[in-house]
Write a structure and sequence with these properties.
Ferritin; mainly alpha; about 230 residues; globular
Length: about 230
């Protein structure tokens, strides 16, 4: 499937897509790095391997996004550069204290990012939309995370309260980052509110988008056995 020519003939739309892919690319590579770090807190070799496989999945997503930027004639590292500080600040503010917090961050953080970017992708050209949906489709390790967290809560119910608070903190930080991303990047904002041959969101639709993201987060926390 090829990109819509009329969409990419619009320079503001093209710039917005490049910003979006740059943000996604840096998000994926930084998540990969953080997951590798968190794997060191895993209690045994088997779980370290499971967590490392999650990092490998994030890296594969990064490669797909990087290749798309290259295909658009863009230096992927220059496209990622504007988002470095934002993501590094997010990871600094949400550094997990232990293995379980790291698992919750992987599951909740990845889920929130996937929901946010898929919402935006619905208003993009078909090729960009298909790529984002593919890389944000998650991994096969979701069941592993849910099982690990639920077993820990069963063994010590007090853990549930701590992890629920942690999940709420992650939600707040992630929403703040997403809102800043929309507000601070002019080209990206122009794509979200309408660019190329895409209708985009209006302000009311943006509000509904964040409501849907919040509702999906609540369901995700419930699957972990936690209150949102």
């Amino acid at each position: 499937m090829s990109a819509s020519p009329s969409a990419f003939d619009d320079e503001s739309y093209r710039a917005g897509v490049i910003e979006l892919l740059g943000a996604l690319s840096y998000g994926e590579i930084s998540a990969c790095e953080r997951i590798v770090d968190d794997a060191r807190m895993a209690p045994d070799l088997a779980t370290r391997v499971e967590v490392a496989m999650m990092a490998a999945a994030e890296f594969e997503h990064f490669i797909q996004l990087r290749d798309r930027l290259v295909a658009l004639g863009v230096d992927p590292f220059k496209a990622m550069e504007p988002f470095t500080a934002s993501f590094e600040n997010f990871h600094r503010r949400t550094a997990p204290a232990d293995y379980l917090e790291g698992l919750v961050k992987m599951y909740v953080g990845d889920g929130l990012a996937a929901d946010f970017y898929r919402e935006i992708a619905a208003y993009l050209d078909p090729e960009t939309r298909a790529l984002i949906v593919e890389v944000m489709s998650g991994t096969s390790h979701t069941d592993f995370v849910v099982d690990q967290v639920r077993k820990a809560i069963e063994a010590d119910p007090r853990i549930g309260g701590r992890l629920a608070l942690w999940g709420r903190r992650l939600m707040g930080e992630a929403l703040s980052q997403a809102q800043a991303l929309v507000a601070e990047r002019d080209a990206l904002t122009s794509v979200i509110v309408g660019g190329g041959d895409t209708p985009g969101f209006d302000l009311t639709a943006i509000g509904r988008m964040f409501t849907r993201v919040t509702e999906a987060h609540t369901e995700r926390m419930s699957r972990l056995g936690l209150e949102a």
